[in-house]
User: Which sequence fits this backbone?
């Protein structure tokens, strides 16, 4: 049985005051964001998916470009996945884009092109976890659902002076129950966004600005002088390192890109063809052996053109890029793990999404 937190409930008077104070504050200070100017459930859904683990300022441009290319669910569902990933390229966490594409197809096929206003139907769509269901359901359809993301979990941790990691499964379940208790019926959209705004601005991780906080009067951590202690900092986990060697193969002004399969590392994305390193042979030697499966006339440069390090969700990636000369009349075969390859102009339209590490590699190598 889960141990009870230090504070489980606010008084009815506190709840009423919290609701009034938070909603008044939000309506006075909320940022003018493009997804807050629309009632279109599709556009709201796109914004919520883009905003997951991504800064608001980064999302602004992507949101408008994405909707410019895919203005409706039908347009998104009909587009090839490579085009969707290309529009998403640079936002990272590409599984979000693939889930969007699959969900759009289901919405067209099963719901006539309209997002369902039913929480169970939303939850059946790819990419719709508890937070996305609640955020889209409350903001797009006015459903009384508490949306608890990382920012809101931090706010609730301080409000209730709860110990432990606010992002573990038990804590999130507890905060969703608390959120339902605090939720003002009929005002779920503004209430949820007020909590998110508070967590993104005043109730920051390291240095909360309690002086201007509309909830300071009820925040148990603030009243106990523990707002900077809670939630506790997570200990950084040691990340395994994945080492790759990549080939920068040129043909005139074009470079060779290869497409990953639809599952696994960098699924469906295009990149410089690369081999995962293992054993004692040098990166150059391992790349040369792997390239021999793709061409009978590939010459790898002695020294790297660039080296790139990228932090992924659960590991670090170290990529060493080598210039590779390919004889003009040499045959070129697609080697595993790739399913397609083509020469493209790096300054022109790309065939699909590029991972951040590929963007860095091209930036450092094409000089």
Assistant:
């Amino acid at each position: 049985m889960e141990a009870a937190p230090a504070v489980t409930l606010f008084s009815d008077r506190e709840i009423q005051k919290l609701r009034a104070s938070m909603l008044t504050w939000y309506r006075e200070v909320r940022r003018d964001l493009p997804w807050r100017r629309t009632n279109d459930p599709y556009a709201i859904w796109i914004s919520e998916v883009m905003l997951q683990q991504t800064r608001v300022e980064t999302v602004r441009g992507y949101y408008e470009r994405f909707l410019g290319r895919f203005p409706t669910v039908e347009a998104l569902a009909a587009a090839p996945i490579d085009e969707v990933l290309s529009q998403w390229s640079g936002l990272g966490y590409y599984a979000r884009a693939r889930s969007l594409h699959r969900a759009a197809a289901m919405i067209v096929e099963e719901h006539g092109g309209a997002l369902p206003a039913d929480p169970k139907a939303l939850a059946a769509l790819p990419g719709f976890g508890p937070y996305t269901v609640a955020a889209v359901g409350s903001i797009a359809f006015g459903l009384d659902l508490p949306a608890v993301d990382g920012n809101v979990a931090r706010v609730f941790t301080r409000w209730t002076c709860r110990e432990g990691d606010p992002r573990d499964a038990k804590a999130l379940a507890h905060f969703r129950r608390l959120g339902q208790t605090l939720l003002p019926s009929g005002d779920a959209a503004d209430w949820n966004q007020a909590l998110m705004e508070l967590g993104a601005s005043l109730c920051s991780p390291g240095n909360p600005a309690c002086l201007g906080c509309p909830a300071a009067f009820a925040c148990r951590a603030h009243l106990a002088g523990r707002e900077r202690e809670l939630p506790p900092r997570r200990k950084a986990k040691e990340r395994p390192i994945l080492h790759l060697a990549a080939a920068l193969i040129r043909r005139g002004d074009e470079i060779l890109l290869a497409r990953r399969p639809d599952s696994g590392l960098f699924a469906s994305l295009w990149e410089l063809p690369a081999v995962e390193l293992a054993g004692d042979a040098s990166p150059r030697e391992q790349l040369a052996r792997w390239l021999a499966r793709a061409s009978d006339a590939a010459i790898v440069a002695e020294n790297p053109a660039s080296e790139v390090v990228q932090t992924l969700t659960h590991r670090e990636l170290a990529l060493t890029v080598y210039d590779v000369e390919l004889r003009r009349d040499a045959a070129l075969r697609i080697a595993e793990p790739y399913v397609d390859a083509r020469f493209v102009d790096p300054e022109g339209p790309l065939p699909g999404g590029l991972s951040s590490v590929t963007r860095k590699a091209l930036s450092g190598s094409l000089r």
Q: What stands out?
A: Confidence is low (pLDDT under 50) at residues 1-7.
